[in-house]
Amino acid sequence: MHQEQAPHNNQWLELQERLHIRFKSIALLKQAFTHASYRNEHRRSHIQDNERLEFLGDAVLELIVSEHLYRTYPHLPEGEMTRLRAAMVCEPSLVHYAQNTGFGRYIRLGKGEERSGGRNRPALLADVFEAFIGALYLDQGFEAAEVFISESVIPHFHEDPTLTDFKTRLQEFVQQQLGKELRYTVTEERGPAHAREFSVEVSIGGKVMGEGAGRSKKEAEQRAASVALSQLQGT
Can you tell me whether residue 4 is helix, strand or coil? Predict the structure, then answer.
């Protein structure tokens, strides 16, 4: 299998252009992609690895994801938000984000780590993704990190039906526990054709149990279902 080579200086410019991000400190950007094995082979250069940046990036990522869930699902109970956040920031998810952004080719590895396939190792890719967030936060602040996460993390979350399919979970709950009719009704449509917003209410046995709004009927129904679930589960 072909191994991608460690990046040359012009590749750092390429990376920034692809991400539409321009770092003030290229040294900080390089550090985010520097594995401890590379640092160990270049001790005289006083190179720093990305472990501290990973620690910081993990905290920044968790905060931004938490705020997104809090604002997007105002009626979702704490336990459910915790479940969703854990799924969004777990190692397999981080690896997926890192692969989508093409981060693997930019990692600086020691020769031994490179030969053993470290460039494609899941834990290493996950660490680099978090380290990049930490570096971006230090270089440009919270808002820049939030924009990056909103573009590289949040869309994948909403595309994963196993995480956000509240309609299916509500239907299963109603069928198994209540045995009543479940119905979604559009109560309002507003805005121009290119930016419509829908309001939906969900009723169970004729009683309205939740309301939600969104850019599509599907999104509004999912939010209404999340409200109904929290009501039914007593949270």
Answer: coil
The answer to whether 188 is a known catalytic residue is no
- 78 assigned to active site: no
Of the candidates 32, 16, 35, 26, the one whose C-alpha atom is nearest the C-alpha of residue 119 is 35
pTM: 0.72
Domains belonging to the chain, first-starting first, are 9-156 (1.10.1520.10), 166-234 (3.30.160.20)
Catalytic residue among 130, 139, 146, 221: 130
Ramachandran angles phi, psi of 151, nearest 5°: -95, -30
Burial class (CB in 10 A: 0-12, 13-18, 19+), 227: buried
Active-site residue (options: 49, 58, 114, 221): 58
In the chain, which stretches have pLDDT less than 70? 1-9, 158-164, 233-235
Identify the pLDDT of residue 3: 42
CA distances from 110 to 40, 46, 126, 190, 198 (A): 8, 15, 18, 57, 54
